[in-house]
Amino acid sequence: MTGSPADTELLQAFQAVEDRFNEAMVSNDVERIAQCIAPDWTLVTPQKGPIPREAILHAIRSGALTHESMTKRVVRASVYGDMAVVTGRGSNTGTFRGAPISADEWITDVYRLVQGQWRCVLTHLAPAG
């Protein structure tokens, strides 16, 4: 990023996209989350590797996974036609199978523009510390 006004506008635009995604996750509403992600979305975690969309949505639907907070500060965003790569520093809290969870991580989301809406196709997590 060169710091130009266009770069700033791009970062702000994708910050809004990421904020919408985070708010959906904190709502723990599977339908709302599904509006932010593509049908083939995959979450890649350091612990489990690739996890398909349906496994995550099932865990949320069943209550096994909940999120109480989720924030992400976008530090890089690049658009390549109808695709975008967004990297940010994020944190979240919640529960997994009744036990408290929290994370401080670097998050890279890959988005595709579908019918005028950016939908996440891949989320990759890496520990920040």
Strand and helix layout:
Blueprint: H1 5-27, H2 30-34, E1 37-45, E2 49-52, H3 53-62, E3 65-80, E4 83-96, E5 99-114, E6 117-127
Parallel strand pairs: 1-6
Antiparallel strand pairs: 1-2, 3-4, 4-5, 5-6
Characterization of the model:
With 129 residues, the protein is an alpha+beta fold. The protein has a single domain, classed as Nuclear Transport Factor 2, Chain: A. The chain is 29% helix and 54% strand. The chain has three helices and six strands, in the order H-H-E-E-H-E-E-E-E. It has helices at 5-27, 30-34, 53-62; strands spanning 37-45, 49-52, 65-80, 83-96, 99-114, 117-127. It has a six-stranded mixed beta sheet with strand order 2-1-6-5-4-3, with helices on one face. Strand 1 and strand 2 form a beta hairpin. The radius of gyration is 14 Å and the shape is globular. The two termini are 24 Å apart.
